[in-house]
Amino acid sequence: MRLLLPRLAALIMLAGICLAEDAVAMRARLVAALDADPLIDAKVKAFAKDKLVPLTADAVLVREAKAQNAKKVPLADIKKLDQEWTAAEAELPIQKEKMSNAAAEAIRGIAKGLSPLREIFAMDDQGANVGQNNLTSDFWQGDEDKWQKSFAGGKGGVDVGKAKFDKSANTTQQQVSLPLIDADGTVVGAITFGVSIDAL
């Protein structure tokens, strides 16, 4: 028994290292996908690889996505919230919460530190909003490429939107969506970054 304990401890440590390598390998795969994407602006690509891919492991955003996943909210309830969100003429309690919770605070900190970022919003494993720095037009992103391709059924991927001129912000923006990755390599959600090409 005494001989088995050190071996067991070594195996547990080795498993932890392998899991950490899985997360690292996934981030390397994201970088490769960004390199191969023909839609992404060259400046946005460099910015995404250098600044955005590391944010897929942001501890607060991963924690908050996992906490929301653990609630196991039925998709029908999420879609009902989405209808209320899109139809609202005044601020709803859910909108206020998604603009002021721990995820939103982390997102505002990210945006403040990286000035080319105009909008950021995190999503859970069903595409429901976890937190944001600007009010999104809808609560549920599960029917859109930005969530479907970045969450990718829990495998993680990349979605890059077309560069568009935003009149209200007076800047050309491109959305880059990536998975949120736990330390063990599990994809727990996704995150969309609106990058101002003009600010790069």
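Above is the first protein from milestone M3; the second protein from the same milestone is given next.
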Amino acid sequence: MSKELEAFLEYIIVIRALSKKSVEAYRSDLQLMEIELNKPLIQLDSKALLTLLAQYKNKRTLNRKLSSVNAFFDFCYKSFFKERQTKLKFAKIPKLLPKFLSHSEIQNALKVIDTTTWIGLRDYALILFLYASGTRISECLALKREDIEGEWLRVRHAKGEKERIVPLAKVAITAIHTYLNACSYEQDFIWCNYQGKKLSRISAYKITQKYLGISPHVLRHSYATALITGGADLRVVQELLGHSSLLTTQIYTHIQKQNLKETVEACHPMT
């Protein structure tokens, strides 16, 4: 590993205080490039790097590698390791609408859950909670009982280790309390499996797949979509979702535009 790369990793650990996963992603991307090209990254020109990165056909993977390279070069320029700024252009990715379910689709799925058992009550409460909170599945499974305070949810284990507080619908709170009262196990984490242990991501995926045919993340998209089409301000949705950048949230504006177009086509006499 070159001294410049070592300095960059120290910078993102100490100064920027990035998460362990982010640091490891940078380390993996950049160190592998130095190994494959058998040269310090700082000595490579754009052409050599782009030739190497051309092997990544998936544009999202390619852009992640480019992001790592650009962050490294920016650090080197600002640290006077490089005389000139180098910035590689990202690959263009077509904007795709995120998959989501309508309110009625989710409600219809909830109706078929057998709530005569505590497992059924858990499945019901989990789906309702994900749709009512918009939390990531990792955030959801990390929740403890004390994280629900009245009608507010405290998300402590958010992406990027940023805590946030969001309002939670009464119907979701009621469903959670009903499930916990029926559950024969007592533990700190809200969601548990049939053995009383913390529910895993795989188990949560199986639950949403069983009743809705989707991953838990689609319920997060459904939450955001419901807010946007209902007229919520984009910055409010950004805060509720815990997005660090408004650019991430702006993907939902395409849904809003689509909804407006469909409304005009359905209602206007000239269409």
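Note on the second protein: The first strand starts at residue 148 and ends at 149.
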